[in-house]
Write a structure and sequence with these properties.
The protein is α/β, with parallel strands linked by helices. It is built from 27 helices and 17 strands.
Length: 757
């Protein structure tokens, strides 16, 4: 610091002399100015090298500091004695923690962390308070061990409690512990049925689970339920549905009374509580196939969400747990929105380990990758690098070296050998002459770091789309990773589970309509690059929905809720020529009064048409109208070789409801002034019913928007006012918005009006 102040003073003195001389030539030639500047630059570079060496030394002592950039780490180290101002950096060091509770101790002389809070409001108390008014390095290390001790004791206390699980999981402070408790109880109950003398005991347990799910379903429909409680109840419904599907598969296989050594049972992720010598010494473990590991005890926060069990997610989960056991990495491949991220994150959180997700892009640097992987390796977390194939070749080569060093060390720890077969008895930290025992450390980019045996490094790549197969991972990286494929993905079971967790009883029927609606939108609307109709959009849409109250829980009301959520979520990203078509699709799919759109009426057809229908009234549509942008039509007409630019609907995807087929068969886009009426009816009945839910913009604010537009010097066209309302409501439900449109269409004016509003 003294050296930097001396250089800063010399630079200020030099600049004051330069300001006194108006001539640039005289300023540069005075007093060997070139030599002075060069000497000052050398001093700055020397100070910067010492500063980087100091930061590397701090990271070697506290490897979690690898999760912070150099600038963030310097700021954090300077905040000694100010724990409240450290919260933004604590969120990066400990994923899942939103805030730490601080109390004064010893008559106000000391400050201490006493609890941790998640994003949705859950609060977990620390077993022992962690003093936080001393050196940052010390309390970060103590906080790391304090969090694990608190989770261990809390889980042990609820596992040894004599209160029934239906009452206990509601009062358990941490959602992940409540899910673990529920899984332990389910495993014990299922295994009791498998070893019972009566094979029908498993069937009776299946009936009990159905009754239990119905009770929780009534609970989530309660309008007086707090949002934090609703989030926990929804997660418990999803978890209960997972165990119900496991029991149903066992019943179909006739597993009742046949013992525990059945692959249909052992291939599932199971949880057990092993009691020690003392009553409070309880060890929680998880098993899958013949693999048994101890629970991770890392706080993942109340963002925890159980995995919806499908055949694809179950197979991927087995591959991930096997890779975690063997110490090998994983390479997850699948089409967009196939649930790759969801499977990895839910599996890691289920076994008590944090999962960090990094989106690959061209600006990732070697140093940043080294720091991130070093921090993950110390934490014992899972790291998923999304779309890894898009990285430059030089970055992929460096990534292969980092993955190889970490995974080789993890394998050696699991097998009890040396990393790479070479002993490293001693090493030196970069920039420090201090020697230390490096036998239990891995060498990453010239620095020895501690590596946890629970570390798992993963990479995901997109396949099944145009251009996705042009690039792949290099062999040096691909051979390190265990392949996990998710090509045969079906969104219907996942959406069914999500809707059921929201309190919809007819979740299977509603999910079928919603998934078909997304398929029709993908085929009937223009092929824009920013359109996305997969699982990612469905999950974002379902964040806004809530099942109707018990006295209004009908299929029609549920469809209206989904239709309003579709309009609110999806209409803001449409291009102008798709608005009318989208309104018609939403109206027929969710607001149709004829009942055919939701499958409540059968088709009048017979023969082949009647056989092709399913339980939701859906059948193939061979003459679905396809909206093609005019510029694509002109380009295809001018050049016949560009016919691939025109969107074509695959025969396997041309499916929509009978009512939608009849409606769209005679419908053509009307002018904007008439687009709000039902085509062909001759009436003025609105195409879309007025929204019955409370909008993010009040009626008073809606009336003020036209005058606000005039005051700002713009013209209050109806379409522009509508866009202002849509952007305001989109930002009320999401943190970001992507505005697209041609040149001079009012994008900047739209942002200015919403900012003023």
């Amino acid at each position: 610091a003294d050296a930097f102040e001396a250089m800063h003073s010399a630079w200020k003195h030099m600049m004051s002399q330069a300001a006194a001389l108006p001539s640039l030539q005289e300023t540069c030639a005075q007093d060997d100015r070139h030599k002075q500047v060069k000497a000052l630059l050398n001093k700055f570079e020397d100070s910067q090298a010492k500063l980087l060496a100091f930061l590397d030394e701090q990271r070697s002592a506290v490897p979690r500091f690898y999760m912070l950039s150099n600038e963030a780490l310097l700021v954090l180290l300077s905040l000694e004695g100010h724990p409240n101002e450290c919260m933004p950096y604590v969120r990066q060091l400990f994923p899942g923690i939103q805030e730490l509770g601080i109390e004064f101790r010893n008559g106000g002389e000391n400050q201490a962390f006493t609890s941790m809070r998640g994003r949705h409001g859950e609060r977990v108390s620390l077993t022992q308070a962690v003093l936080c008014d001393g050196a940052v390095q010390k309390w970060v290390t103590n906080l790391e061990s304090g969090i694990q001790d608190a989770l261990k004791q809390e889980l042990a206390s609820i596992l040894t409690s004599k209160v029934s699980r239906n009452e206990l999981w509601l009062v358990t402070p941490a959602l992940q512990l409540a899910a673990t408790l529920l899984s332990v109880e389910h495993c014990a109950a299922i295994e009791a049925c498998l070893v019972a003398d009566d094979p029908k005991e498993l069937v009776r347990h299946q009936e009990r689970l159905a009754e239990e799910a119905e009770q929780v379903l009534v609970m989530v429909r309660d309008e007086n339920l707090l949002e934090s409680e609703r989030h926990k109840v929804s997660a418990m419904i999803t978890l209960t549905g997972t165990w119900r599907s496991i029991v149903e598969s066992l019943v179909r296989e006739g597993a009742g009374g046949r013992g525990l050594n059945q692959f249909g049972w052992k291939s599932n992720l199971r949880f057990y509580a092993e009691k020690g010598l003392k009553a409070k010494d309880v060890k929680c473990t998880f098993s899958m196939c013949n693999i048994t590991k101890e629970y991770g005890y890392s706080y993942v926060g109340d963002d925890f969400s159980p995995l919806v069990r499908t055949s694809e997610s179950h197979a991927a989960q087995i591959a991930l747990i096997t890779a975690h056991h063997l110490g090998s990495g994983g390479w997850i491949r699948g089409p967009p929105s196939s649930g790759k991220l969801e499977v990895v994150r839910c599996t890691a959180n289920a076994i008590g380990l944090p999962c960090l997700v990094v989106q690959a892009h061209a600006s990732l640097s070697h140093r940043w990758l080294t720091a991130t992987i070093s921090g993950v390796a110390h934490m014992g977390a899972w790291l998923l690098l999304r779309n890894a194939e898009t990285l430059p070749t030089s970055i992929l080569s460096h990534l292969a070296q980092l993955y190889s060093a970490v995974l080789s060390f993890v394998k050696s720890r699991k097998t009890g050998g040396k990393a790479g077969g070479v002993a490293t008895p001693k090493g030196k930290a970069r920039g420090s002459g201090k020697e230390f025992d490096a036998e239990n450390k891995a060498l990453l980019d010239g620095v020895y770091i501690s590596v946890h045996s629970k570390t798992l490094l993963l990479a995901s790549s997109t396949s099944g789309v145009a251009g996705a197969g042009a690039r792949t991972l290099p062999d040096t990286l691909a051979l390190l990773l265990r392949p996990v494929t998710m090509h045969s993905f079906r969104p219907l079971p996942v959406v069914t589970g999500w809707l059921f967790s929201k309190g919809f009883r007819e979740s299977a029927k509603l999910a079928s309509i919603l998934v078909r609606f997304m398929e029709v939108c993908e085929n009937a609307l223009t092929a824009c690059a920013h359109y996305e109709w997969g699982l990612r959009t469905l999950k974002r849409l379902l964040l806004l929905v809530r099942a109707p109250p018990e006295n209004k829980a009908t299929t029609e009301e549920s469809l209206k809720v989904l239709g309003k959520a579709c309009r609110l979520t999806l209409s803001t990203r449409l291009v102008g020529e798709d608005e009318d078509t989208f309104r018609a699709l939403v109206n027929v799919a969710f607001f149709s009064t004829r009942g055919q759109a939701n499958g409540s009426e059968a088709s009048d057809g017979d023969g082949d048409d009647a056989e092709e229908e399913d339980e939701t009234g859906m059948r193939p549509l061979e003459a679905a109208p396809v909206r093609v942008p005019p510029k694509f039509k002109d380009r295809a007409r001018d050049d016949p070789n560009n016919h691939h630019l025109i969107s074509k609907i695959p025969a396997a995807k041309r499916r929509m409801s009978v009512g939608m087929q009849e409606f769209l068969g005679s419908w053509s886009p009307a002018p904007h002034a008439q687009s709000n009426s039902r085509p062909g009816s001759g009436s003025s009945k609105p195409l879309l019913p007025p929204p019955a839910v409370a909008r993010a913009t009040s009626s008073e604010q809606q009336n003020k928007i036209p005058q606000l537009i005039i005051d700002m010097g713009f013209q209050p066209f109806e379409s522009f006012v509508l866009r202002c309302l849509q952007l305001h409501e989109a930002l009320a439900n999401q943190s970001t918005a992507f505005i697209t449109g041609p040149v001079c269409c009012g994008k900047t004016a739209l942002v200015q009006v919403c900012a003023r509003q």
